[in-house]
Amino acid sequence: MTSSRNSRAWRRAIGLSIVLVVACGREVPLEVRVEQLLTKQDYGQALDLLARELRKRPEAWTVHDLRVRVLLAAGQADEALRAYAERYRSAGPDAPALFRQVAIALVQEGLASRDGLLRARAAAALAALASPDLLPVHRRALAHPDASVQALAVRGLASVSGEEAGRLMREALGDPQAEVRAAAAAALTGRNDAETRAALAQALHDPVQGVRLRAAAALARQGQPEAFTLLTRFVRDPDDSLRMQALEALGHLGNPDVAPALRPALQDSNPYVRIYAAEALARLGEPLGREVLRQVLRHPSRSVAMYAAEALSNLGDASGAPRLVEALGPGQDLSARLYAAWTLARLGDHRGKPILDELLQHDEVQVRMQATWTLGQMGDGVGVGSLRRALTDEARPVRLQAAWALATKLGGQRPRG
């Protein structure tokens, strides 16, 4: 008996030894080893492991992706951007969902920047990338002391479905900053639940006229006649900006019955107000509106003429293209060249792209940054190659702007609300 028991024990020991040998001979997958190191927050060893693997397989894109994920986990968003950009040197494929993670990490860093312009750009990028999974980032942005950051953050919530987004926007209607309250009222347009209607109705009594105007525009879109009447009164307000905002809102509401109330604004002393009035009338089916805009294209002020060209582009009308192309010429004002390229792009006209590529080499960081943003506004995939090159710009603000613009173009997985 004893001999039999010993024999069975020996066989079990031999079997266990065989299992151990087989297990040790079978290499643990790279992904598993990296995950184990991430669990221990041993980022350095994980990066060393991936670096060794990439020396053996430089075009193993899944390994490149792992490296980017490790850098993001380590809080090194700028290094993650550089690591991602390396794939372009070997014509590697894009990984939109991963790149979106890089862009979001850079948004969060940008929001914490001391540079006000960079903060605003980061907030605008947050608005462009907005989705339910970014609600925590929106909450942090809404708590930012910079009112422009808060306003852009709440504006982005307009494209996020779900009750939580609605709650954040309604809360923003009570913000101490009028800029934030106005943005919240505008963002709530299209939400027709009882809580939103009540919050907007209360905003009609806001001490700041701009907030009242935005609330009236949102309620008028819901078909509330008293809000529509209030909005129409703003067309005669002494403040130029309020007249323009009211005209824009009324044009988008699409009620032709309001056209007679808008026609007097075609004689406004401010040429920009006249442009807003003409565009609004054109949207309401009044031929006079488009006719006036085409006349303004001949205005002696280039700024006014180009603004008319933009208004026409809003209507899908390319009548202003010749004036815009003229502004692209060498020696013209930089801001005019950028504006012309952007407006042409909205018409699907990409004649401004060579100018933007040229400006990406400009000595001034702000010019390169603005050119990068404008490239991001071009549709049909235009500008993707230029944005990829801008990811390696020596100036961090340009790199970040390129990342945000490229992430918007590439898309990626956005959780549904």
In short:
The chain has 417 residues and is mainly alpha-helical.
Verbal overview:
It is a single chain. The termini are far apart. Helices cover 68% and strands 0% of the residues. The chain has helices at residues 2-25, 30-39, 43-56, 61-73, 77-85, 96-111, 116-129, 135-142, 147-156, 163-172, 178-187, 194-203, 209-221, 225-233, 240-253, 259-262, 271-283, 287-296, 302-314, 321-327, 334-346, 353-359, 365-376, 384-390, 396-410. It contains 25 helices and no strands. By secondary structure, the chain is mostly helical. Residues 1-7 and 9-25 have low confidence and may be disordered. It is globular and about 80 Å long.
Radius of gyration (CA) equals: 28 Å
Uncertain regions: pLDDT < 50 for 5+ in a row? 1-7, 9-25
Helix content range of the residues, please? 55-70%
Question: Structural class per helix/strand content?
Answer: mainly alpha
Along the chain, the helix and strand elements come as: HHHHHHHHHHHHHHHHHHHHHHHHH
Sum up the overall morphology in one term: globular
Cα distance, first to last residue?
69 Å
| Mean pLDDT across every amino acid position | 91
What's the total number of strands?
0
Total number of helices: 25
Bin the strand percentage: under 5%
Largest beta sheet, briefly? Answer: none
Which helices and strands, and how do they pair?
Layout: H1 2-25, H2 30-39, H3 43-56, H4 61-73, H5 77-85, H6 96-111, H7 116-129, H8 135-142, H9 147-156, H10 163-172, H11 178-187, H12 194-203, H13 209-221, H14 225-233, H15 240-253, H16 259-262, H17 271-283, H18 287-296, H19 302-314, H20 321-327, H21 334-346, H22 353-359, H23 365-376, H24 384-390, H25 396-410
